[in-house]
Each structure stands twice: as C-alpha cells, then as structure tokens.
Amino acid sequence: MNKKHFRTLAAIYSNPVRSNVKWADIESLLMGCGAEISEGRGSRVRVSLCEFDAVFHRPHPKPDTDKGALKSIRRFLEQAGIKP
Questions:
Q1: pLDDT band at 72, cuts 50/70/90?
Q2: Which percentage of the chain shows pLDDT scores above 90?
Q3: Which residues of 12-21 are buried (b: 16+ CB within 10 A; e: fewer)?
Q4: Are 4 and 30 in contact (CB under 8 A)?
Q5: Where are the alpha helices (DSSP H) in 1-84?
Q6: For residue 81, what pLDDT is reported?
Q7: Mean pLDDT score of the chain, rounded to an integer?
Q8: Going from the N-terminus, what domains does the chain have, and what CATH number goes with each?
C-alpha cells in the first residue's frame, strides 16, 4: 500500500463518518490490499478479499461515497483484518 492508500484507509475509519471519500480512491485501496474486484450488473461491484466477499454499489452520478456505504466498507475491511 502506498501513502494515498493509508490516507484513504484513515478517512474510512475516521469518526464521525465522512461523506467526501471518492469511490475511485476506495477501489484503489482495495486493489492495493490485494482484493479481486469484478463488475456486477448496473453499478454493482463484487469484491473478494482474504476469503471474504462483498457487493457494493458504485455511487453515481457523484463520485463521493455516502456515509452508509462507507460504514459497510469499514465493516468489510474489519472482517478482512485491515485496519489503520
């Protein structure tokens, strides 16, 4: 993981939950952690990381991830053992 990935990870775990984290930065972080990402139907994105699977919705039309999705991503990363 590079410096930008660590900043994104810190933003995901910050309290209160932020609403300005770009989806592209989250995808980059997941790939930097070794996740396998595949496209689903519509805006769905399937992610496999450390034997854990999840499906997220890519935000549109804005690039920022909403707070609910960010909480889901945080739970997924915690399950996979990735913490700041």
A1: very high
A2: 89
A3: bbeeeeeeeb
A4: no
A5: 3-13, 23-32, 67-79
A6: 93
A7: 93
A8: 3-79 (3.30.920)
